[in-house]
Amino acid sequence: MARSKSPRKAPARKAGKSPAKAATRTATAPGDAKAARRTARGQRELQAVIDRKDARRKGKDKGDDAPMQAGARRQPERMPAQHVAKPGHEADLDLAPRFEAPDYRGSGKLEGMKAIVTGSDSGIGRAVAVLFAREGADVAIFYLDEHEDAKETARWVEKEGRKAMLVPGDVRDPAFCNRAVKRVAKQFGRLDVLVNNAGFQLHAERLEDISDAHLQETLQTNVAGYLQMARAALPHMEEGASIINCGSVTGLFGSPKLIDYSTTKGAIHAFTKALASNLIPRGIRVNAVAPGPVWTPFNPADKPADEVGEFGQDSAMGRAAQPEELSPAFVFLASPVMSSYVNGIVLPVMGGPKG
Known about the structure:
The chain is α/β, with parallel strands linked by helices. It is 37% helix and 10% strand.
């Protein structure tokens, strides 16, 4: 009878000793390891140089953080801590936005042309209307209810030797858009440029804080208003005409407290590209400008005063732009002698990337 084998016993371990672990091999030649140590030592030396410079600079080098100035005249760097009631009147601002562009010399880039600029009672719209007039265009000033501001814009357009037409109304209403554009086309004889600039912005801490009425106000003004104005204008536009939409940095990068507004600006960018492709057979160009922070009644009519006082400081240039720093971009896109081969772009005018 075969004997059964008893299982082997594991060799006894000496007290206090753990099982031996397999050694981890390093597949590096001695020369390579030496070179690697030398490189690491060199990197630490480079780091030490920068660390010493940082230590010397700390607390002293405030000039590096100063807001950037790169224009023909020095622009304001700090905004007043002020809150105003909507829709926001330019005349109520403690710091008047700069729209005059006194160093800009017109050269007939829009000579004899007829333009509509929505939201041109103040801010970017006013600055655009003034430069359009300086370049030779008659301008229809579309606005909501800011009559005194709109009259001031008209005064500046006429000061440039061009005709101004005041058109109050609500771009959310398609019937108004149709009626108003027809009146402008009849009085001016034709329509060459439409600038969609009217907008609504209201911050909210959380998405749940945006009511249905708030959401619809933003969507109907910023998206439907743009589509309706373009639809009303196109029957009066011919080859060589152009549409310029006002987008935003928020449409490119978003904004945590402007969720609905950012959404509409992204939609405007997409609308610009889609309509540009659609209108190629008709010879009508469509482009957009995407501004960064700009000092207009828009933000004081939205944010609390303390936040308005810091407006623009987180931009790449460390300050908000003035409207006169934006308006030449609209002239460029409107002028067939400057941008006849520019179509479907979203032109960022936001002071550069934030590093």
